[in-house]
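Exam prep: given the inputs below (a chain plus adenosine monophosphate), describe the expected output before reading on.
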Amino acid sequence: MTAKDDPIIGIDLGTTNSLVAICDEKGSRILKDGESNLIPSVLVFNELGKVLAVGHRAKTLKSLDPKRVLYSVKRLLGKGKKDLAALPFKLPFDFSPSTDEVIRIQVGAEKYSPIELSAEILKRCKFIAENALGRPLKKAVVTVPAYFNDSQRSATAMAGKLAGLQVVRILNEPTAAALAYGFGQSSQEDSKIIAVYDFGGGTFDISILKVTGKIFEVLSTDGDTLLGGDDLDHAIAEYLEKKSNASPCTEEDRVLLLSQAENIKKALSVETKVAVQLQWAQKLQWSGQITRDEINAVMKSVIERTLSSCKNALKAANLTIADVNEIVMVGGSTRVPLVRSLVKEFFKKTPNTSLNPDEVVALGAAIQASILSGETTDALLLDVVPLSLGLETMGGVVSKIIPRNSTIPCAASEMFTTYADNQTAVDLHILQGERELVKDCRSLGKFKLRIPPGPAGLPKIEVKFLMDANGILQVKAIDKKTGESAVLEVSPSFGLSDAEVESMLQAAFENAQRDFAERQLIEAKNQARALIQATEKSLINPLLDAPFRAVQEQKIRPVVKALKIDLESAALEIILTRVKELDFITQELAQAILNRSVSSHLTQQSIESISG
Ligand code: AMP
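Solution:
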C-alpha cells in the first residue's frame, strides 16, 4: 500500500481552536471548514445531552443555555479529579460526582469524560478532512503541548481512537512548529537551538529545542497557562474606559467593550493609527483616534511577562541567549508588532514570522504525517521522558529502568527473580519519580505475572519498559522459562498536574542525600536476609556429613544470630561488616558443598556410563 492509498492527516488539537492539515504532492496545507481554517474547539449539546454541533456551528449556537456549551476541554484532558481543585481558573461546568478519579461533565442526562469530548472535536476534524479530500481517512498525527505528561498524551491518543483515528504519532507542538519552518529536515549533524515562542489567546508557552540533523529534543519548557491575548484585550479595555471616562455597567456591555478592545488591537497590528467609535449600552461612548504607540505602552507590561518565562526556560536548559540560533513564532498574539519587537530585543535576533502563526503547528503535524507515511524523506523526532520510570523491588526500593530525560522512543529491560521459595506469582509495581523509595514515588499501576512454584532465585523474569514515540508506557513481564507474559499499559486516569511534576522534582532534589542513605540501608538489609536464608539452607544440606556440619554450625550460627539482631536496629556500617564476616566464615561450608555436589554428580555419571 502506498502513502497515497492511506494518507495521514495532521491535527492541531487546540484549547480554543483546532486545525487539520495534509502534506502531499501539493505541499503542506490546511484543510478548510467552509471558508475558515480554524475549527473552534467548542461543543454544543441538545436538551437530552446528545452532541448537537461541534466547531463553527457550535460557536454560533453558543448563546444557547450555557450548561449545554462546552469549551477548553483540552485543559482537563488526562487529568484526575484531584487536579480540578488545582486548576488556576474555574470552568463553569457541571462536574459529576463519582467515586472514581475520572473527571466527568454532566450535560442533560449524559456524562462525558474529557477524552470523549476531545474525541468529538477530533471527529469533526476527521470529517472536515474527509470532505476536503473526498475520501475516508483512518490515521492522524495529533499535536500536544511539550509539557503534557504520560497521562495527557495517552488521553489524547485514546480520544483519537474513539474518533475512529489511529494516532500514529503524538507530536509536541513546538516540534511541529519548527518542522513547519523546515528545521530538522537536513541530514547534517550540526546542532541548532530553537526557541519556540507560542503566545495564543489564553496561554503562553516557550520551548527550547535542540535539533541535531533530523533529531529533535525538548531541552526545557516554561510558560503561563493564564497569560494570553485575552490579557492584552483586558489591558486595552481598561485604558479605553479611562480614556472615554465611561464604564460599562452590565456584563453584556463589558463583553462588548472587550471585543472592541480586541478589534483595536488587531487593527493596530497592521495600521499605526485607527479611528475608534466606542459603543455600548446602545450609545456612542467615545470617538477619536488611537495610535499604535499609545496601545504599545498599555500592552508592554503584559508582554514583558512572557520574557521572564523565556529567561526561566533558557536557565532550565542551561543555555544563554547567545546559544539560541532561531526563534519560531506561534499563536495569534505573535501578530502584535510589539510582541515581535520585544522578542527580537530579548533574543537579539529576528524571529521567524513568515508562516501564519495560527497554522504553523497543524502544518508541521502534516509534515510529520507525510514523513511517517513515507511521502516525505525520513526524519526522526525525539522527545524526552520527564520523570524516571521504574519498578518496586525488595524492601520498598525503586529500581529505575528508564531514567529521566531519556530520549523517546526508548526501551529498557532488566532481569528479576523471586525472593521466597514456591512463589506462584510475581507482583509488578510501576513507579514514576526521582526518589529512591516506593513511598516517595508516584504509583502508575500494578500487575501480576503467574509463575510455576520453584526455589527462590531460580525464576528469570524479564521486565521490559517500552516508551513509544507518543510517550505512552507499556510494561511487559516475561517468564523466560515458561514464556508466559503479562502486560500493563499506563492508564490516563492517573493524572498528574504540572505543579505535581515540578514538586516531585524539587522533593527529589531536596531529599537526595537522605534517600540515598535509606536506599543503601534497605539494600544492605536485603543482602543480609538473602545471605542468612542461603546459609541456613546450606547448614542442613544432606550432602554434609555430621561431624563437619557440627563444626560449621558451631562456627556459623552465632554470626547468623548476631546479624539477625543487627538487622533489627543497627546502622549500615555494622550490617555491612557483619555481612562480610558471615560471607567469609561460610566460605569453607560453601566450598565443601560444591566439592561434594561435583563428586556426587561425577559418581552418578560413572555409574550411568558403566550400567550403559
Ligand atoms: P490563538 O489562541 O493562537 O488562536 O490566538 C488567539 C489570540 O490571537 C487572540 O487573543 C487574538 O486576539 C489574537 N490575534 C489574532 N489575530 C491577531 C492580530 N492580527 N493582531 C493581534 N492579535 C491577534
